[in-house]
UniProtKB/TrEMBL annotation:
InterPro entries: ABM_dom (IPR007138), Dimeric_a/b-barrel (IPR011008)
Pfam families associated with the record: ABM
Record keyword Oxidoreductase present: yes
Source organism of this protein record: Cryobacterium gelidum
Protein name according to UniProt: Antibiotic biosynthesis monooxygenase
A molecular function (GO) term: monooxygenase activity
């Protein structure tokens, strides 16, 4: 079953200028990862340091493999610009509603 993951992040104000480059470089790898159906980046209309990444995955297994990759050999530089702890929430489509 497909998964939609929301990654809610805040960028350090002093890193805002480089955030577009870091996000772009990070998402090149994410979007090419097996099972990724796409990633959209939303920016808060009132807070330019607040982003929500909307990731779509073929399955929970693909998402899990991606998270393991990012925690290990695929670690990105995203952590260097993020303020606080990112919040990851995963959703499945409700088929019985």
């Amino acid at each position: 079953m497909p998964i939609t993951a929301f990654l809610d992040i805040h960028v350090k104000p002093e890193s805002l200028a480089q955030s577009a480059t870091v996000l772009h470089d990070t998402l090149l790898v994410t979007r090419a990862f097996d099972g990724c159906l796409g990633v959209d980046v939303l920016v808060d209309a009132e807070d330019p340091t607040h982003f929500v990444l909307v990731e779509k995955w073929i399955s929970m297994e693909h998402d899990t493999a991606y998270r393991a990759f990012r925690a290990g050999p695929g670690k990105s530089s995203l952590g260097s610009i993020v303020s606080g702890t990112p919040v990851l929430t995963k959703y499945e489509i409700a088929t019985d509603i």
